[in-house]
Amino acid sequence: LPQKHLAPAAAQADAESAYELVAINMRCQIDREAGSGHIPLASEGLCKDLALKPLSREEIFKAITYAAENGSVKAQLDYSVYAARIFEDEKYAFDTDLIREYKENTVRFLEAAASSGHTEAYVQLSDVYKYGSIAPKDPAMSYAYAEAYVRTNSSPRAASYLRAVSSGLDGAQLRRGKEITNQILNKRSSSR
User: How many CA atoms lie within 13 A of 151 on its CB side?
Assistant: First the structure.
């Protein structure tokens, strides 16, 4: 895995490389498991070496964490999906410290991506607070991130998503959500 103490540009390049390795590994694994008749997600050449020695769950976890820590927005957005694979190993499935780290990192990395201007992170954060499996359920926070998504994205999907998230909220939750939205968007503006 890449070294931790690199110059910012080198760390960013290493982060993107680590993310690509994890993503290619996953595409190759899907191709292997799907068998014939499946349209390949990766070229045969890319998968040749990884077929002999695919990344372990631990290597995937370390690489995606490294990539997200060092500024790969793709890794920050996809962290929860790739990192969760470690819990398929019963050795880690009930490791409360690792579960807590995973949950904290998921929120932290999504917030970093959102602060960098990547609006798709707002939808993921809204879902995090809507469903409560990664962070405590908080309807006002879910609304706040959905509102931030609407304010930064003009797609029809954004307005529809906000309507779904706001359904059933009372006036106090909506007011709190709007206040939080302003804080989120102010934080985004100041980090640019």
Answer: 18
How many other C-beta atoms lie within 10 A of the C-beta of residue 111? 16
| pLDDT tens by residue, 81-96 | 999 999 999 999 999 9
How high is the pLDDT of residue 3? 45
Interval 61-78: pLDDT, tens: 999 999 999 999 999 999
Q: Within 35-138, where are the H helices?
A: 44-52, 57-69, 73-83, 90-93, 96-115, 120-131
Structure tokens belonging to residue 91: 């050795």
Amino acid at 99: I
Measured from the Cβ of residue 10, the count of other Cβ atoms closer than 10 Å reads: 13
Between CA 183 and CA 150 the distance in angstroms is 15
**What residues have CB less than 8 Å from 162, skipping those under 6 apart?**
143, 146, 147, 149, 150
Helices (H) and strands (E) in the chain, counts: 10, 0
The CB density around residue 68, as the number of other CB atoms within 10 Å, is 28
Q: How many Cα atoms occupy the beta-carbon half-sphere of 162 within 13 Å?
A: 20
Cβ–Cβ < 8 Å for 139, 171: no
pLDDT band, very low/low/confident/very high, at 24 (cuts 50, 70, 90): confident
Residue pair 54/29 in contact by the 8 Å Cβ criterion: yes
- 166, two tokens: 């706001």
